[in-house]
Structure formats: structure tokens, C-alpha cells
Design brief:
heterotrimer, A mainly alpha (226), B alpha/beta (374), C alpha+beta (557), B: 3 domains, 5-stranded parallel sheet, 9% strand, C: 557 residues, binds protoporphyrin IX containing FE, binds NI-FE oxidized active center, binds iron/sulfur cluster, binds FE3-S4 cluster
Chain lengths: 226, 374, 557
């Protein structure tokens, strides 16, 4: 049928999609509980400690989400080496001329809102890939500082592996301060990310949002032929 | 009175300790130090021969509150330490001799007990500008500390000054105040931070050296684990209120009178390692939190620059006094939201037509294909 | 020909003090006092939250811990027009009193006594006679012959060990020591006893401020709350603890310190004519009984005495820019306007500029700049500050309690009023003051109990706590009396931050170098005329200098 110009391509394998949503939920939980840890709200006085545990629960959720977040992240890194080409680690670090050219084009689409040829990438476009890479560094930072702080309240091995960060950064206060500041990176990242996903879906019409659910994207055939 | 120094055994005798008790003490000491029973005799012998530990206590850029804290010790009391346990040969705060005679006391000990004496340091050392910001007897602190450390057996750095530089090292550190461990290397250094350290922590550190004849176990920052391995927060009696989310909202409010947690008053307990909440101050009377003020983190490095003290987090440098990362974060977040909204609107203006046209053409195609198919 | 001697370090003080003195014919003819350590705390305070300043300034000194915190919170409260609740004022008074009791006793026994008491001579004393002596001057229960025999035994063992520790190389046997062996033994015994007692009285700081040294203060009140029905607050148990400590302090001061002071002084009456120095005395006064705003109800009055004229007390105003000023002519600082100008602390500048000899050095260049202390003046006059100034201002102001105590001491020692203007006078005034403070402290305590009983438990005012409630510019001064004398902090607040912060401290007044007109400050003036038996053993210099109780960390900051 010559008038069918769109091809259905399986882009996001199940582990990537699973990773994405576990990660998204964990980050939202971590940011919300983290914010509360920094700014517990005032509840009424006149009650006794043994009647309440809400703040402990908030912290508990933070720590449980942290473990999910951490191992999920490790899983994604692993998948970056064994998964399909769209999930490969290569997509995150621009090295080829082509990638840089594409970044330039994406900038034109996103910022100048120019209408150009459809993008070549099927998976992440190279600018998105780079932002995810930066966000991975932020994940790493947040895990190191988080577990570094956690080391003081835990005897298990994993947090202890990060205890070195505390003296390196000049003490628990500094670690906490940076960990807290970093929360804002995640909030701003999420806002922009979600918006851009919707935006690209809107302007490109490749079904990019649903691709993170079902794995399939819908790519123009002529783009594929080139 | 010129005879050779009294040995520990002679000293014990003069204190009315029996030979039997002395031997028992030595055996216990040997056991504690992990020495085999067959060598206990050697330990007894060593203890009999041993003069009191010579100690020189140097004063540099300090407020002398570490000395003041030290004399508040209750177990052991400081007169027992100074008369029976150590020989405090130099300390500007208490020694009888001044000037030339004071310097002589120092040098006598350095010569006579070369490699044997314990050096205590109170205060930081200004290293810049030839050391002119702290001179004693015409010599700079930096020269003195190097000279005295050279033949010391070990060094104790008292207080936040000697371990981290303390208040004078706070920004902009106008006198290049520097802690001991950044100047001296190749000697065991025991860091005993706190502004000041708790009296019994100071006495306890010295007693540990004497009773077990070795340096207490230290953590990565050179602090005795016995006193600095736990956060105030993990040992604080207000902790149940923290977990319950019950906080003082303002000084002397109803919650303060009930002893709720001081977290929102800027308490640094969660980021501070010290023994205050366990040992408490002045022989167990209280500690800052128990008396209604948050911990200011006085045993931590650079705690002075982590202010303002009454805020949970520090202010953002370069902004107003109360501007925190959150204010900046909210501003950036709001700017992002505005940017997104603007972008969305302009997208619709610029691309709306194009997309609508595409939609129309696709509908048309769909219709034709439907027709064709029918 | 005169000879120049150097005493550095001066020990049994706080901090790093150097004295250079010219000696001629067995007497000091000129003297130079230098502070040789600086930290730059005024510079460090710039740009910080004014509510934090108390903690920074408290670390100026751990010996007179709390007074800088007090001066600081008062300066901030003054600039923001905060009036603290009466209970907070009373608790501040109680902490003030606890500091005086501890610091003055420690000064007498541990910093000053060895200038008068020959520890080695105590070995020769007869414990029985010592006991008789002790019982003749007080009924302190510990004065049995066995008690003194035990102390002597302990001391003998110590000396025979050959390791003399803090007593090594003292001036033992110096001709200027005059006490009989028994008095020496008594003094030594009480040296040890005072060392144990002093750690008790500071527990008042621990109860209200959480620790000592360096208890916590708060702008707008005190951080502790009262709730007599609550285990987590200041309750009946905590208050009873304070009461007991005050009773014990009262006993110790009246049964040990004051009798010892009088006993020792009676052997050194000649020192009532030595070490007078300046003839001007300044006190800011303190211990408000009706709020910090009502000077007339201060237990310790404010004022200046000029030329030892006790018939007139001049008024003092910390805010008048023509009254209190600092010079840097002989100090290692730089003023924008040059070395001759004086600056009121609100306009004060702190710019370190060392011009002295490169260490190691033998002598300072006293013709030029020679100290890290600035030189404060009141209306151009050099002033002495300290217990003596406070007692003289109270005496001249006709404060009955003070007049009676001072007259009592003069009578007991059989010396004229003029003997107050001396080394001995300073040391005696400190004792008199301690005795009065021990009484007043009980008054503050009773008043606090009464307020709580009547339902007033307020400790803190909240309305000016948030920086958003502050004006964009504000200025204030906090005046207090530190154990060593008149202390004040000046603050300039701009946009909620500290724009300028200046401290003028008791030992700055007393130990500073000369001013541009060559006027000496108190230390230098007091040393002139002091007899020196043996220039190699400058015991007499220590006596006069110690009578001021120098604190150099304070003085320079
Ligand atoms: C996106 C990831 C994360 C965000 C946005 C986040 C955010 C925050 C925030 C805002 C705080 C409060 C800091 C304060 O003001 O005191 C906090 C505290 C904390 N976070 Fe995270 N966090 C994240 C990940 C993690 C991870 C992976 C760990 C690892 C264990 C962790 C452990 C902690 C700990 C231990 C605390 C201190 C809690 C306490 O002592 O009560 N966080 N976090
Ligand atoms: C409603 C919420 C979200 C939607 C619809 C969404 C959707 C998507 C989509 C469609 C992609 C693939 C984009 C591409 O092709 O380049 C993606 C990737 C990604 N998203 Fe989200 N996202 C959401 C929330 C989040 C959140 C909260 C985070 C965490 C900060 C996040 C982190 C990521 C990351 C790290 C990737 C790269 C995935 C990989 O390659 O492993 N997302 N998201
Ligand atoms: N000079 C002085 Fe201080 C006192 N008293 C205080 O202001 O000693 Ni450290
Ligand atoms: S650590 Fe604190 S208490 Fe000790 S000397 Fe330094 S400033 Fe004073
Ligand atoms: S008062 Fe401070 S140390 Fe105690 S539980 Fe609360 S935050 Fe932790
Ligand atoms: S301020 Fe210091 S005294 Fe202890 S409770 Fe905090 S470490
Ligand atoms: Mg000053």
C-alpha cells in the first residue's frame, strides 16, 4: 500500500520501560519525601511522641525509594551494555559528527521551533541522550551523598561503601546541603523532560509517549530509508 | 627533692596502694592490652620503672576554653590528673614560672624526655606572613609547634581550633589559622574536636593513654572512636519527637516547653559527631539540646560557615541572609514553569497551522483509503 | 643606665602577653605591654546573621565565657529595639553571677595566688598550726590537722618525685614571699580545693545554657523554657539544683576565699602603695533589676571616676561618638584616616597590618607599633577597668552594700582608702565584689522563683526574630561588665546582615599600647615604680599584672 508511510519499530525493550517507570515513581517519591525531610510541616502541639510516627514514615519511604532507585539504576546501566541499540550506552555520550549535528537540529526544533526534516534518531535523539547522561551523573551524585549520609544510621554494607564521601565533602552538613540542592535538579529536570516528551509527541507525531508504555514508535518510512 | 623521678610504683605507694593491688592492676592492664600471662612480670617491671607521663600543653590561637573545660573534669578530677597521673610540665594557663623560666621548663622536658613526652595543642596556628599573628617569647607559633612536635611521642589536638581551625579559620580566615594535622606529619595525632570538648572526654583521652599505654582507636579523622563515633541525633533523648514529627516551631513556644525536637530551630544534631547526648556536660548535668538550644555542630569542621545557625540549611552564598537553596530552587522551578508555558503557547501559534494542515491531510487520506477500501 | 627586661610569655593569665620593662636602681621606670596573638574576629563577623554573632563572639574567650555572648545579644537587641522578658534578664543575671563566682575564685587561687604563696615553703609547715590558723579565720569544716597533714604528704610526694610539673622553675624562695609556712600550706590546700569547687558553680551555665564553657544564648531572651510540670524543661528539680549551687558558692566564698584573701593581704600591705598606675576608672555597670533599659536599678552602677576623685561620678554614654574611641597609633592596624585619628566603634575599622620585627625577635620596636591591641580612650582619657573600677564607682555612687563591704575590708586590714588604688586594692576589690555577687545571686534566684510562682514563665520575645521584620539599617551597642571590666560590642546592621561589628574589651582598655599623645594605658602605668628585687626573677611584675587578671584573647580578638 503505497500510502502507508509509517513504520512501527520496537524501540524500548521491557527492561528499559520497567526501569523508566520505577525510576520515575522513585524520583517523585524521593523528591516529595526529601522536601518534607528538609521542611517538616508544623502539626499541632499537645501530643506525645508515642502517638505519632509520621516523620519516621516519611524518612522510611525516602530510604525504601532510595534502594529501589539505586538498584533500578544499576540495572539500567547493565542494560546499556546488553540491551538493543536504542538502549545502548553509546546513545548517551555524543561522539560522532552525526550526533552533534542532530543535537544542533534538536535545538532548532525545541528552541527556535523551526520545522525541519524529521529526526534521524529512532531511540533518543542525541540531545535527549546527553541530558539523560547528565541526569545519570546526578543520580550517581544523589546516591553517593544519600548513602553517605545513610552510612551513619546503618550498619549494612551498601551505605558503608559510600561513607568516604562525608569527610571528602567536609562533613555531614555539607553533604546534606548538596543532597538537598540536588533535589531541585530533579524537579526542574522532570518538569522539562515531561514537557518535552509531550512536545515532541505533538510536533513529531511518532507516538513517543506511548513508546515508554508499549515500546513501539512510529517512524516515517523515508527517514528510515536514508 | 633533686632525686630521680618517682616511679609509678613509688607513687602508688605514697598513695597508700599495696603491692598486691599494684600487681593486680598491672596484670589487669596487661590483659587489657592483650599481653600474655607469662609477660605480666615485664609489665609490672615496666610500670615500676615508669615516671609520670611528661606533658607539654601548647597554647596558640585559642580562647583557652579547652583548658577551662579540662579543669572541669569530674572523673578523674583534674588535681588528680595533674598531681598523680601526668607531669604537666608546660601550660601557660597554670604554670608558676613565666618568661625565661617558663621556656626553660619546656626545654628541660623536651631534652630530658626526648621522644617520650606527650604534646597537647590548644589553638590553631597561623602559617602565613611569617607567623606574625601568633608569637610567644618572640618566636612564631609555627616555629614552636614544629620544634616541640619533632621529639614528641604523640600529639593531642584539643578542640575545634587545633583540629579544624575553629572560629578564626571561618571565612575569610584573616590570619591563615591552620589546624595541627595540616602542619605536622609523621606523628600520631589524636584529634579531640569540640568547642570546647567535653571535660571528661579530654580527661578520658589522657586516661586511656595512661591506663592502656596506647593510643585509643581513632576514626578516619583521627578522633577517638569512644567519643566521636555517634551523631548527637542518634543519641539525643528528643529523638522520639523527631521521628514523631513533633517540632519546636519557635523558641519558648508550647512545643519548646514540652521538649519537642529542635530540628526546625536549626539543630545540627543530625550532622554532628560528639558525645554530648550520651555523657552530657559538666558531669552529666545537661547538654545544649536539653537546655533548649539546638546543637550548633561545634565539633564539626567549618561549622562556623554552615550558618545561619537557626536555619536547617545554610544560606545561599551571595544572596540575602535567609535565602536558602529552596528559595533559589523555587525561583528556578517557577522560571521553568513560565518558560514551559510560553513555549507551549508559541508552539501552538507557530506550529498550530502546520499541524492542523497535517491533521486535515491525514483525515483526507484516511477518508480516501476508506473509500478505496469500500 | 637602665636595663630592659622581657617577660614573655606572661603565664597564669589568658592569652599571649609580653611585657618589656626598663629597670633602673631596682625599680621599673618604663614599661611596654604587647598582645602578640590576633584572630580577626571582627572581620569574620562581617556579612553574617546578627542572631549568630553571640556564638562567634563568645569564642573570643573561654575564660570569661558568656560575657561576649551577653554583650552581643544586647547589642543586637538594642539595635532592633527588643526588650527581653524579666525572667530572661534574671537568668542572664544568674549566669553572670555564676561566671563571676567561678572566674574570680579561679583567678585568686590558680592565677594569682602563686605570686604570694610559696608552695615549696608549705612543705615545712606544721599541719597542726596550719589547722589552728585556718580555724582562727573561718569555720570551714575541712580545716583539721589531719586534712592539712594529708595535703602536705601529697605535696611532699609530688615534690620528691622530681617531676614538678606546673610548679617547676617557679620563683620559690624569692625574697618577696612573706607568708609563714603555715599560711603557704593553707593556701596550697585551698588551691586544690578551689580547683574542685569551681567545676560545680558553672553547672548553673549548664542548666540554663546547656554547657560550660560556652553556654548558649539567644537574641530576644534565653533558649531554655520553664515548665514546672514537665521533665523536659526547667522545672522544680532544675531550679533546686541552681539554689543548691548558689548556697554552696556562698559558703565557699565566705568561708574560704574571703578569709584567705584577708589573711594573705595582711602580710602584703606594702602592696597597697604599689601598682596604682592610672587614676581614672570606668565602669559600664550591670545586673539590671528592672530591665536593661533602667540603669538606675543596676546592682553595679555605671560611671567614670577621674583623678581618683571619689566625690564625683561622671556619666558614660556608649552611643556618643565623642566618648569611647579607639586609636591604632602603636597597634598593628591601619586606619583609612591615618594613625592620629580616633574612631568611635560604630565607625571602627579593623585592618591588620603587621609592621613589627620578623620573628624570631629579641625586642619589639616600641617607638613604632608594638601590639595587636587597639588603644581605647574615654573622652581622650586612659581608663582602668575591672573589679576595682566597679567597686570604686559603686562606692562613690554611695551604694550602701558596697560602701559597707569596702569599709569593712579597709578596717580589717587597717589601711586607708588610698590603699585601694593599688595592686592590693585590685585584688581586694575582686574579693569584695565576689562576696556581693554571691548575695545578689540569691536575690535573682528568689525573684525568678517568685515570677514563676506568679505564672510568668516567658523567656523569649518572638516578634523581632524574623529578619524580615527588621529595618534595612540599624545600629546598637551592648554594654556589660565582664569579670575583667567594662565590655561593649557595637553593631551596625545593613540588609539583615552585619555590616560592622566592633568589640572594645576590658583588657583592651588595660593592656593597650600608648595613644598618639604618649599616654600610657593601665598596665604600663601601673608597672612604673614597681620594685624589682631580682631582674632575672620578675615576680613583682607578675603581681601587678596579675592583679588586673589579664585576658589577651579578649583584648585583641
Ligand atoms: C532523586 C533522588 C533524591 C532526592 C531528590 C533526594 C532528596 C532529599 C532531600 C531534599 C533531603 C532532605 C535534606 C535536608 O534538607 O536535610 C534528603 C535527605 C536524605 N536523603 Fe535523599 N534524595 C534522593 C535520593 C536519595 C538516595 C538515593 C539516598 C540513599 C540512601 C538518599 C538518602 C537520604 C538521606 C539519608 C537523607 C537524610 C535523611 C535524614 O537524616 O533524616 N536520598 N533527600
Ligand atoms: C509522566 C511522566 C513521564 C513521561 C510521560 C515520560 C516519558 C518518557 C519517554 C517517552 C522517554 C523516552 C524519550 C526519548 O525517546 O528520548 C523517557 C525517557 C526517560 N525518562 Fe521519562 N517520562 C516521565 C517521567 C520521568 C521522570 C519523573 C523521570 C526522572 C527524573 C524520567 C526520566 C527519564 C529517563 C532517565 C529517560 C531515559 C531512559 C533511558 O534511556 O533509560 N522520566 N521518558
Ligand atoms: N578582658 C576580658 Fe574577658 C573578661 N573578663 C572579656 O570581655 O577575659 Ni577572657
Ligand atoms: S576549640 Fe573553641 S573552645 Fe577550644 S580554644 Fe578554640 S574557640 Fe576556644
Ligand atoms: S533535637 Fe536535634 S539532635 Fe535531638 S532529635 Fe532533634 S534534631 Fe536530632
Ligand atoms: S554544639 Fe557542641 S556541645 Fe555538643 S550538642 Fe552540639 S556538639
Ligand atoms: Mg575591637
Amino acid at each position: 500500500m503505497e500510502n502507508i508511510l509509517i513504520q512501527r519499530i520496537y524501540v524500548w525493550q521491557l527492561p528499559v520501560r520497567l526501569y523508566h517507570w520505577v525510576n520515575a515513581i522513585a524520583v517523585v517519591l524521593l523528591a516529595c519525601t526529601g522536601y518534607l525531610i528538609g521542611h517538616p510541616f508544623a502539626i499541632q502541639s499537645g501530643t506525645e511522641a508515642y502517638d505519632n510516627y509520621w516523620f519516621g514514615t516519611v524518612r522510611f519511604i525516602h530510604f525504601v525509594s532510595a534502594f529501589f532507585f539505586f538498584f533500578n539504576f544499576i540495572g539500567r546501566i547493565y542494560w546499556g551494555f546488553v540491551g538493543n541499540k536504542h538502549s545502548s550506552w553509546r546513545n548517551f555520550i555524543p561522539t560522532t559528527k552525526k550526533q552533534f549535528k542532530e543535537m544542533n537540529e534538536v535545538l532548532k526544533v525545541d528552541i527556535l521551533q523551526a520545522k525541519i526534516q524529521p529526526l534521524e534518531s529512532v531511540g533518543h535523539n542525541s540531545l535527549a541522550g546527553l541530558t539523560y547522561f547528565v541526569s545519570f551523573l546526578a543520580f550517581l551524585f544523589q546516591c553517593v551523598t544519600g548513602f553517605g549520609m545513610y552510612a551513619a544510621m546503618s550498619t549494612s554494607l551498601l551505605p558503608q561503601m559510600f561513607s568516604w564521601i562525608v569527610p571528602l565533602m567536609g562533613g555531614d552538613f555539607a553533604v546534606r546541603q548538596w543532597h538537598h540542592i540536588m533535589m531541585w535538579f530533579f524537579i526542574v529536570f522532570s518538569m522539562i523532560h515531561v514537557y518535552l516528551v509531550f512536545y515532541h509527541d505533538y510536533v513529531e507525531g511518532r507516538g513517543i509517549i506511548s513508546s515508554m508504555a508499549g515500546g513501539w514508535k512510529f517512524i516515517e518510512k523515508d527517514t528510515r530509508k536514508k | 627533692m633533686n632525686g630521680s623521678p618517682l616511679t609509678l610504683w613509688e607513687h602508688a605507694q605514697s598513695q597508700g596502694v599495696s603491692r598486691r593491688d599494684f600487681i593486680r592492676y598491672c596484670s589487669w592492664l596487661a590483659a587489657a592490652a592483650g599481653i600474655e600471662a607469662s609477660s605480666v612480670g615485664q609489665v609490672i617491671h615496666a610500670m615500676e620503672k615508669k615516671p609520670r607521663l611528661p606533658v607539654v600543653w601548647m597554647h596558640f590561637q585559642e580562647c583557652t576554653c579547652c583548658s577551662e573545660s579540662f579543669i572541669r573534669s569530674s572523673h578523674p578530677v583534674v588535681s588528680d590528673i595533674v598531681l598523680d597521673k601526668i607531669s604537666l610540665d608546660y601550660t601557660e594557663t597554670l604554670m608558676a614560672a613565666s618568661g625565661f623560666q617558663a621556656e626553660k621548663s619546656l626545654h628541660d622536658t623536651m631534652k630530658k624526655y626526648k621522644g617520650e613526652y606527650l604534646m597537647c595543642v590548644e589553638g590553631s596556628i597561623p602559617t602565613g606572613d611569617d607567623g606574625v599573628y601568633c608569637c610567644i617569647g618572640g618566636k612564631s607559633a609555627i616555629d614552636i609547634v614544629r620544634e616541640v612536635a619533632a621529639d614528641a611521642k604523640a600529639i593531642i589536638a584539643w578542640g575545634n581550633c587545633a583540629t579544624h581551625g575553629c572560629v578564626q579559620a571561618a571565612k575569610p580566615n584573616p590570619t591563615t589559622a591552620t589546624p595541627v594535622h595540616k602542619i605536622i606529619s609523621g606523628k600520631p595525632i589524636i584529634n579531640v574536636p569540640g568547642c570546647p570538648p567535653i571535660a571528661e572526654v579530654m580527661a578520658g583521652t589522657i586516661v586511656h593513654l595512661l591506663a592502656f599505654d596506647r593510643i585509643p582507636q581513632l576514626d578516619g579523622l583521627g578522633r577517638p572512636k569512644a567519643f566521636y563515633s555517634r551523631r548527637i541525633h542518634d543519641t539525643c533523648y528528643r529523638r522520639p519527637n523527631y521521628d514523631a514529627g513533633l517540632f519546636v516551631e519557635s523558641f519558648d513556644d508550647e512545643n519548646a516547653r514540652r521538649g519537642y525536637c529542635l530540628y526546625k530551630m536549626g539543630c545540627r544534631g543530625p550532622v554532628t559527631y560528639n558525645a554530648c547526648a550520651i555523657m552530657k556536660w559538666n558531669n552529666g548535668v545537661s547538654y545544649p539540646i536539653q537546655s533548649g538550644h539546638g546543637c550548633i555542630g561545634c565539633s564539626e569542621k567549618d561549622f562556623w560557615d554552615n550558618g545561619p545557625f537557626y536555619q536547617h540549611l545554610a544560606s545561599f552564598p551571595g544572596f540575602g541572609i535567609e535565602t536558602t537553596a529552596d528559595d533559589i530552587g523555587v525561583a528556578v522551578g517557577a522560571a521553568t514553569a513560565v518558560g514551559i508555558a510560553a513555549h507551549a503557547i508559541s508552539t501552538n501559534i507557530k506550529k498550530g497551522k502546520l499541524i492542523n494542515a497535517e491533521i486535515a491531510s491525514s483525515e483526507e487520506k484516511e477518508n480516501t483509503s476508506k473509500k478505496g477500501g469500500a | 643606665m637602665s636595663t630592659r627586661i622581657v617577660v614573655d610569655p606572661i603565664t597564669r593569665i589568658e592569652g599571649h602577653l609580653r611585657i618589656e620593662a626598663e629597670i633602673k636602681d631596682g625599680k621599673i621606670v618604663d614599661a611596654y605591654s604587647a598582645g602578640t596573638m590576633v584572630r580577626g574576629i571582627e572581620l569574620i563577623l562581617k556579612g553574617r546573621d546578627p542572631r549568630d554573632a553571640w556564638a562567634f563572639t563568645e569564642r573570643v574567650c573561654g575564660v570569661c565565657t558568656t560575657v561576649h555572648a551577653l554583650a552581643s545579644v544586647r547589642a543586637v537587641e538594642d539595635s532592633l529595639k527588643i526588650v527581653v522578658p524579666p525572667n530572661a534578664e534574671l537568668i542572664r543575671n544568674l549566669m553572670f553571677a555564676a561566671l563571676y563566682l567561678q572566674d574570680h575564685v579561679v583567678h585568686f587561687y590558680h592565677l594569682h595566688a602563686l605570686d604570694w604563696v610559696d608552695v615549696v615553703s608549705a612543705l615545712k609547715a606544721d599541719p597542726k598550726k596550719t589547722s589552728e590558723l585556718a580555724q582562727s579565720i573561718s569555720n570551714w569544716p575541712k580545716s583539721s590537722p589531719k586534712y592539712f597533714a594529708d595535703v602536705q604528704k601529697r605535696l611532699t610526694a609530688f615534690v620528691e618525685s622530681g617531676q614538678l610539673g606546673i610548679f617547676a622553675n617557679g620563683y620559690w624562695g624569692h625574697g618577696a614571699y612573706k607568708l609563714p609556712a603555715e599560711a603557704n600550706l593553707m593556701g596550697t590546700a585551698h588551691y586544690l580545693e578551689a580547683l574542685e569547687w569551681q567545676k560545680e558553680i558553672v553547672k548553673i551555665h549548664t542548666i540554663f545554657g546547656g554547657k560550660n564553657p560556652h553556654p548558649n544564648y539567644l537574641v530576644g531572651g534565653v533558649p531554655c523554657s520553664v515548665n514546672i510540670e514537665e521533665a523536659n524543661s526547667i522545672n522544680a528539680e532544675r531550679l533546686a539544683y541552681v539554689g543548691t549551687l548558689l548556697d554552696q558558692a556562698f559558703e565557699f566564698v565566705n568561708q574560704v576565699y574571703i578569709p584567705d584573701l584577708l589573711a594573705v593581704a595582711s602580710f602584703y600591705k606594702d602592696w597597697g602603695a604599689i601598682g596604682g598606675g592610672l587614676s581614672n576608672y570606668l565602669a559600664y555597670g550591670d545586673l539590671p533589676m528592672n530591665g536593661y533599659g533602667d540603669i538606675s536599678k543596676f546592682k553595679l552602677p555605671r560611671g567614670v571616676i577621674l583623678n581618683r576623685d571619689l566625690s564625683k561620678v561622671h556619666e558614660v554614654d556608649g552611643k556618643n561618638i565623642d566618648e569611647i574611641q579607639e586609636f591604632v597609633k602603636h597597634s598593628w592596624y591601619e586606619y583609612a584616616g591615618g594613625d592620629e585619628v580616633a574612631k568611635h566603634p560604630w565607625e571602627g575599622e579593623t585592618k591588620l597590618k603587621y609592621t613589627g620585627p620578623k620573628p624570631p625577635y629579641q625586642h619589639l620596636n616600641v617607638e613604632e607599633k608594638y601590639s595587636w591591641l587597639k588603644t581605647p580612650r574615654w573622652k581622650g582619657h586612659a581608663m582602668e577597668v575591672g573589679p576595682l573600677s566597679r567597686m570604686l564607682v559603686a562606692y562613690a555612687s554611695g551604694r550602701q552594700e558596697v560602701v559597707e563591704e569596702i569599709n569593712g575590708v579597709l578596717k580589717a586590714l587597717d589601711v586607708p582608702v588610698a590603699a585601694l588604688f593599688s595592686t592590693l586594692g585590685r585584688t581586694a576589690a575582686r574579693g569584695v565584689e565576689t562576696k556581693l555577687v554571691a548575695v545578689w545571686a540569691k536575690e535573682f534566684y528568689q525573684q525568678l522563683l517568685l515570677n514563676i510562682k506568679n505564672g510568668d514563665t516567658r523567656m523569649f520575645v518572638k516578634d523581632k526574630w524574623e529578619p524580615s521584620s527588621w529595618p534595612s539599617e540599624a545600629k546598637g551597642v551592648g554594654l556589660t561588665e565582664a569579670p575583667r571590666g567594662a565590655l561593649a560590642h557595637w553593631i551596625v546592621i545593613k540588609d539583615q546582615k552585619i555590616d560592622n561589628y566592633q568589640l572594645v574589651v576590658p583588657t583592651t582598655w588595660n593592656a593597650s599600647p600608648r595613644d598618639p599623645s604618649g599616654q600610657r594605658s593601665a598596665f604600663e602605668a601601673a608597672l612604673i615604680g614597681t620594685p624589682i628585687k631580682n631582674p632575672d626573677q620578675p615576680l613583682e611584675i607578675l603581681r601587678t599584672i596579675h592583679s588586673f587578671d589579664p585576658c589577651l584573647a579578649c583584648a585583641v580578638h
